[in-house]
Design brief:
With 108 residues, this protein is mostly helical. The protein has helices at residues 2-13, 17-30, 35-48, 51-64, 69-85, 89-105. It is globular, with a radius of gyration of 14 Å.
């Protein structure tokens, strides 16, 4: 699994976003309940400007996060940024406040 994550990171860094997404999707087939994988692909889709997909993926990660405060905060940050991209400043503000609340709880 770690090898696939490293491969996806390398691909994304080289501007090969679709290859990175395919690598992450392969990892998800192996570990479909891994919330960190869902988060990584949400971040990738956010970077590509695929706002709705980023929201859906971050929401899926949240559903699997089982109280991982840092992960929940990161997912809400992704959701906030995607909502900004969709032109929903109020929704983005609400999501950003949720993100900040999770990060405050873990001391960041």
């Amino acid at each position: 699994m770690i090898a696939l994550l490293e491969q996806a990171k390398t691909q994304a860094g080289a501007g090969e976003a679709e290859q990175a997404a395919a690598t992450l999707e392969r990892a998800l087939r192996i570990e479909p309940k891994n919330p960190w994988l869902w988060h990584r692909i949400a971040v990738l889709r956010l970077q590509q400007g695929h706002w709705e997909e980023a929201i859906d993926l971050a929401t899926k990660s949240n559903a699997l996060a089982s109280g991982h405060r840092r992960l929940l905060g990161g997912n809400w940050k992704v959701i906030s940024m995607a909502l900004e991209g969709l032109g929903d400043p109020e929704g983005a503000r609400d999501a950003r406040l949720k993100s900040e609340g999770y990060f405050q709880e873990v001391g960041e």
